[in-house]
Amino acid sequence: MYRDFTQIRYGLSCSIVYWAIYFFTKKRYFAFAFSFVLAFLLHNTALIIIILLPLCYFFKNRYVYLIAPFVCLIGLFINPFPILLSLGGVPEHMQIYFNEEGGGGMVVSVIGMAIMMIYAVFYTKVKSENFDFDMYYRLLAVGVSLNLLFIQASIFQRFSYLFFQFCVLFLPNMLAELQKMKDKYYFVLLHFLFNCFFVYYGIKLIAPTLIRPYF
User: Fold this and answer.
1) pLDDT, tens digit (0-9, with 9 covering 90-100), for 154-178
2) Dihedral sign, CA of 135, 128, 192, 70?
3) How crowded is residue 168: how many other Cβ atoms within 10 Å of its Cβ?
């Protein structure tokens, strides 16, 4: 039961980080700081936002972010987790996760790269005064890159999903802007296909083996 409670804390922390970034893009810095502290108190995964958010804010070359996932493909062949352990870069108790078998999946990276490619091609058409597309694109790129770099270490998938969640705002807003173009019906179809995939994938995630009653 403690294990499942940890996942609930993590999920709640991620959802608060989701709002913290929204406040940050709207320059509501007090609300951002309050939300971040609350998220961190729930689960320490939120700390990575303070480490990587300045990078996403100040470094804005979209093509570097597009190339980064390909560089991080090295994670398919080399697991950086034991390297971090040897350097003392992660707490010693996390050694237990290194001893566990299994890693992350490729779905986050494949879907994330598809979304990034669409934005990279049509970014001049995707503009809005109410939504910071560039910032959310960079956050998504960080999630995709981390997922590939640490794909052999399941514990680090927490960081991948923390950043990947921003595509929940990024993708529909991007497609909504693209559907204003002359060839809008292609993007309506693309939107429909994305939705079909997410519904299918969501249904596949409902595995009876994950539903356990407590006695």
Assistant:
1) 778 888 899 999 999 999 999 999 9
2) negative
3) 12
> What's the chain's Rg over C-alpha atoms?
18
- Cβ-Cβ contacts under 8 Å for 59 (sequence gap 6 or more): 138
Question: What is residue 215's predicted lDDT score, i.e. its pLDDT?
Answer: 47
The maximal CA–CA distance of the chain, rounded, in angstroms, is: 59
Do residues 140 and 84 lie in contact, with contact meaning Cβ atoms separated by under 8 Å?
no
Say if residue 213's pLDDT is above 70: no
Q: pTM for the whole thing?
A: 0.85
Rounded CA separation 18/22 (Å): 7
Nearest-angstrom CA–CA distance, 147 and 129: 30
Give the type of residue at 5: F
Q: Which of 173, 174, 71 is nearest to 121 (CA)?
A: 174
Q: Is residue 166 within 8 Å of 141, Cβ to Cβ?
A: no
